[in-house]
Design goal:
alpha/beta, TIM Barrel, 7 helices
């Protein structure tokens, strides 16, 4: 069963080139301390869920006004019935952008094979060696690189993106992250925000300064065609 934990009724930022809505599915298989959406991580949280009927009614009423729907989280690919959920969105005529961390490679492969999405954004959390520390996950990490390669070969519009912070993302680490997505069309670096974090201790961490972000961007540009900063 899909758990709808949030709905942004219009966004001009989250689906490049389209006026879209964003639906946030609850639950995640990562536990990144710097996560700025902690209420979406745990399905057992007190965040009230939105009934699916309410969501479908909303999309029906926005036909002709919205062009796309961003399916985000949390991590959407923890929901085994995600393909059917996306099919219903597509059947209404909307383009679909999927946000993912790439850990559930088999389900991502199924979704791409069935041509269910039009745009994919995948988060790169750090170097592969950092994933057990950053994400608190130790198994299935080979799926991260498999998902990257699948997305880059898909022929779809896509972007990779990383939330970066001085604690984890040194210039040397950015070199390793760049190697992971070498040849990618687009990469976005989003500065860490310490106002609301999954691990309260991260509220004491500092974000990057503008010049430091630019240094990381220049490193990334050695590996990708386009890199932008979202500060």
């Amino acid at each position: 069963m899909i758990s709808i934990a949030g709905l942004q009724k219009m966004t001009l930022m989250d689906y490049p080139g389209k006026v879209a809505a964003a639906v946030f599915l609850g639950g995640c298989n990562f536990r990144c301390g710097f996560c700025h959406n902690p209420a979406l991580v745990d399905l057992k949280s007190d965040l009230p869920l939105i009934p699916e009927a309410t969501f479908w009614d909303f999309l029906q009423k926005r036909l002709g006004l919205l062009e796309g729907v961003v399916v985000s989280g949390g991590e959407p690919l923890i929901h085994s019935d995600l393909p059917e959920f996306i099919k219903k969105i597509k059947a209404l005529g909307y383009a679909v952008k999927l946000d993912t961390n790439g850990l559930n490679f088999p389900l991502l492969e199924k979704i791409l094979r069935e041509k269910l999405v039009d745009f994919i954004a995948m988060d790169i959390k750090g170097s592969l060696a950092q994933y057990p520390v950053i994400c608190q996950v130790t198994t299935g990490l080979e799926n991260i690189k498999k998902s990257i390669d699948l997305i880059m070969a898909s022929g779809l519009d896509y972007e990779f993106r990383s939330t970066v912070m001085p604690k984890y993302h040194t210039p040397a680490i950015l070199e390793q992250m760049g190697q992971m997505i070498k040849g990618a069309k687009k990469y976005s670096l989003q500065n860490f925000r310490n106002q609301q974090t999954l691990n309260p201790d991260f509220s004491q961490e500092r974000p990057f300064k503008v010049n430091e972000l630019e240094e990381l961007r220049q490193i990334a540009l050695k590996y990708v065609l386009e890199c932008e900063i979202r500060n």
